[in-house]
From TrEMBL:
Signal peptide: none annotated. Residues 21-119 form the AB hydrolase-1 domain. Gene3D superfamilies: alpha/beta hydrolase. It comes from Chamaesiphon polymorphus CCALA 037. This is Alpha/beta hydrolase. GO terms for molecular function: hydrolase activity. SUPFAM superfamilies: alpha/beta-Hydrolases. Pfam families: Abhydrolase_1. Keywords: Hydrolase.
Length: 258
């Protein structure tokens, strides 16, 4: 991992693999480690992954000001520019999916294909779920199904011990929450021109599946895939399925023109 100065922050990032660039944008509070090691290793067999920590998360700088999701999209675009990557696929999950939507709207010439995972448009067209686990620290129930927790308790304990210390806290978390709370693309999703894959788990309590239905209906060239028996943390609990869906979409995309 290394850092680069983008605007008013130092962004922590890591590059894995060789191939077409794929920018990975993580969600509320979490760091680049929260994608899960197996999932990123699977993708790195085919792509140049650009993993990074959002402002106020992980090892990236704390912000000195309040900001919007669009500002966070500027951070992502600035990172690509600093790395001299003119165009990339973008995969955003949760709040990272909101950032990815803004990236698609603000930087269409820098975007190849778009993947939106367990995310929402915000505004009045979305259904907010239960994200209290982010504040309470009870992340297992937020991210995974009860069955997965029971069957993988030892592995999850180790994973959370590694990732939790890098999660946003205090004022940093409050700034991210404020930014996410003002996200609203309900009336602008139709302007996203990129081929788009929308992924969600059928048992997501944080951002329920209905939000993905809205995205699929409003983005002109979008396809929705539902991952069975998966919750909000599907890239960790279902790495093979998520990687397969991602790779198939990026190499054999559907042709959907509404």
């Amino acid at each position: 991992m290394t850092k680069v100065t983008i605007g008013d922050i130092d962004i922590n990032y890591e590059i894995k693999g060789i191939g077409e660039p794929l920018l990975m944008i993580m969600g509320l509070s979490f760091s680049l480690l929260d994608w899960g090691k197996k999932f990123t290793e699977l993708l790195a067999q085919h792509y140049q992954l650009i993993l990074f920590d959002n402002r106020d998360a992980g090892l990236t700088s704390e912000s000195t000001r309040t900001y919007t999701i669009a500002d966070m999209a500027d951070d992502a675009a600035g990172l690509l520019d600093a790395l001299k990557i003119p165009k990339a696929h973008v995969f955003g999950v949760s709040m990272g999916g909101a950032i990815a939507q803004q990236f698609a709207l603000k930087y269409p010439d820098n975007l190849d294909k778009l993947i939106l995972g367990c995310t929402m448009a915000g505004g009045t067209c979305s259904q907010v779920g239960d994200i209290s686990g982010v504040m309470s620290g009870k992340l297992e129930d937020l991210l995974f199904t009860h069955t997965f927790i029971q069957n993988n308790r030892q592995e999850l304990t180790k994973f959370l011990a590694e990732t939790t210390p890098l999660h946003s806290k205090g004022e940093s978390l409050q700034r991210q929450l404020q930014a996410f709370g003002t996200h609203d693309t309900c009336d602008t999703l139709s302007s996203i021109k990129a081929l788009t894959l929308i992924l969600t788990g059928d048992k997501d309590i944080a951002i329920p599946r209905s939000n993905s239905d809205v995205l699929a209906a409003k983005i002109p060239r979008a396809k929705l895939e539902i991952i069975a028996d998966a919750a909000h943390g599907f890239s960790y609990s279902h790495p093979d399925t998520t990687a397969d869906l991602t790779h198939f979409f990026l190499h054999q995309p559907f042709n959907k023109d509404k």
